[in-house]
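Example 9 (inverse folding). The structure is encoded as follows.
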């Protein structure tokens, strides 16, 4: 099957993008509004773009209504600072709940029940309990013609690394259990390997479906429910 991208509306294209670009790391972004209200939201259009200076990229779409800027972007634009916290399996429910489009005057740390920890060099707090966090200052913002889609490039000014994870200048990621995104669902990274692998092992895994950790059926997808929106927000 071939699908011409020119024939797709934004929602249809988004469904195909999030189903093909997998797994995606989650930037659990903490910000402060200009008035000092805390905000917390997961963003899975996230990657690194440079190493000297260390620089990351996050892409922020509008809210579920398709017309209102997300609080995370407004805060980043207005203050120039943000923190990307690593999301891990024990925090999965809090990560998911923080994807709701709360009102701008709601402190999502308090609403979701996530504790704040002071950052070292920026004003927004990091997530207490998150093993890794990148404190960032805005380098550049790229906006779509309508101003609703925005890509933020941020320079990492400070790395927070939990003490036991820092080994000879590297991260012991095997002790973290990070979660990522698969379309509208989540996955946990719980295995690692270096090629080559045994042919029998490769054949065994190639024929298996992913193992669901919840109680849903094999072909279940939140995209087919009313709780999903093409903004990435959770609808309550």
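The amino acid assigned to each position is listed next.
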């Amino acid at each position: 099957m071939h699908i011409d991208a020119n024939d797709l509306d934004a929602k249809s294209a988004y469904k195909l993008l999030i189903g093909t670009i997998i797994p995606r790391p989650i930037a659990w972004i903490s910000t402060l509004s200009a008035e000092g209200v805390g905000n917390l939201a997961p963003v899975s259009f996230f990657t690194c773009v440079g190493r000297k200076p260390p620089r990351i990229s996050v892409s922020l779409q509008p809210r579920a209504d398709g017309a209102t800027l997300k609080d995370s972007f407004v805060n980043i634009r207005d203050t120039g600072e943000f923190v990307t916290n690593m999301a891990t399996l024990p925090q999965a429910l809090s990560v998911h709940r923080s994807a709701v489009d709360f009102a701008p005057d709601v402190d999502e740390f308090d609403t979701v029940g996530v504790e704040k920890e002071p950052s070292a060099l920026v004003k927004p707090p990091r997530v207490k309990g998150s093993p890794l966090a990148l404190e960032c200052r805005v380098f550049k913002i790229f906006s779509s013609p309508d101003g609703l889609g925005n890509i933020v490039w941020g320079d990492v000014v400070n790395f927070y690394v939990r003490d036991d994870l820092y080994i000879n200048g590297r991260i012991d990621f095997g002790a973290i259990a990070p979660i990522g995104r698969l379309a509208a669902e989540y996955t946990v990274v719980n295995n690692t390997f270096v090629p080559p692998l045994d042919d029998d092992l490769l054949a065994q895994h190639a024929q298996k479906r992913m193992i669901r950790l919840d109680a849903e059926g094999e072909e279940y997808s939140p995209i087919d429910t009313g709780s999903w929106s093409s903004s990435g927000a959770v609808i309550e």
